[in-house]
């Protein structure tokens, strides 16, 4: 049991480093950039509160578990903002390969059974094919939109984003997992772009 | 539906403020104080990874939900460190009354059904009587111990804590929900106190 606990805490102490990974998005009051640890907490809370926006077959507890894990690879790779490099960096093959190496290292700190379970959950999130993963991805896209709205534009201004770019890079993915939610958010966002 | 989403997001945007509530404990690298938002994320991850330490009848998904919510009242009340005022402030009647008022206000932002469900979950955590709440409380006590160990003493040095005080204020509560975990952590901690 001692070896098992050593491995469990090697992972949990390593996870602490996610609190030092900074995102492009700020807090709602624009006081500082958000970090990926607190972002993961906020997203899990989004899942709990917006569960009624999920489609049939979505298990909110699995969504929450995914969201708790989804950014851990950023400990090695950092956050790649959606709108950086004109929207091309986020899903690039290079980023995906680096994230796979990070997953191997970070989940590899865990005892074998946990390593396999949690890594499979992260891979399911990344693949964005199951209902749980599609809904989790929708929440991951909607939260920065709400943070930007709260602070008067945020990363839209930083990256000179147009409404069409927001709709294609972000709106489409929100709508895929939570269509009614995107309808509502879209109406909130549209006036900001004039 | 629009009114409902307005209320859901009033709560989620208010929750963002928990990221600005600072705790006595630092990150593992001692670079800065931890905030209560990222602490809540880390604890939920603790629940996921240390599920095998829970006693019979514990539902880890309910524990995770509790831990996501457990510190929201600190938006109004702030964090009250376990070892402050020689260990007397944390559970005082004054603190408890302030936290109850905060819960009324913060959960009150939600639509009625969600307000009732999430507030009940927070109250269950606070009461620390059900197996889920007892295990959640154990994790809430063990995480700062691990952070202190990682950074060479942390709040034990700040508050001049003795091993006996640590055992009575913290160890007893860890042992209540996760006895094998406290046995292991106790051995790690003992040498620090000489």
UniProtKB/TrEMBL annotation, chains A, B:
Q: What is this protein called?
A: HD domain-containing protein
Supply the source organism for this entry.
Answer: Neotabrizicola shimadae
* A GO CC term attached to the entry: cytoplasm
Q: Which PANTHER family match?
A: 5'-DEOXYNUCLEOTIDASE HDDC2
Q: What InterPro entries does the record tag this protein with?
A: HD_domain, YfbR/HDDC2
* Keywords (A to Z) from UniProt: Hydrolase, Metal-binding
Name any one Pfam family assigned in the record: HD_3
Q: In the record, what terms sit under GO molecular function? A: 5'-deoxynucleotidase activity; metal ion binding
| UniProt keyword annotation of Metal-binding present | yes
Q: Which residues form the HD domain?
A: 15-182
């Amino acid at each position: 049991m001692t070896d098992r606990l050593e491995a469990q805490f090697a992972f949990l102490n390593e996870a602490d480093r996610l609190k030092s990974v900074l995102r492009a998005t700020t807090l709602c009051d624009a006081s500082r950039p958000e970090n990926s640890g607190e972002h993961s907490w906020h997203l899990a809370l989004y899942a709990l509160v917006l569960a009624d926006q999920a489609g049939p077959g979505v298990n909110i507890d699995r969504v929450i578990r995914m969201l708790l894990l989804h950014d851990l690879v950023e400990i090695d790779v950092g956050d790649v903002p959606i709108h950086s490099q004109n929207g091309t960096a986020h899903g690039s093959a290079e980023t995906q390969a680096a994230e796979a190496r990070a997953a191997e290292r970070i989940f590899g700190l865990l005892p074998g059974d946990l390593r396999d379970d949690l890594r499979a959950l992260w891979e399911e999130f990344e693949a964005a094919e199951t209902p749980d993963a599609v809904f989790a991805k929708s929440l991951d896209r909607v939260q920065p939109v709400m943070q930007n709205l709260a602070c008067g534009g945020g990363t839209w201004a930083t990256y000179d984003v147009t409404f069409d770019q927001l709709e294609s890079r972000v709106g489409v993915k929100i709508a895929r997992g939570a269509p009614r939610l995107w309808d509502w958010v879209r109406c909130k966002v549209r006036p900001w772009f004039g």
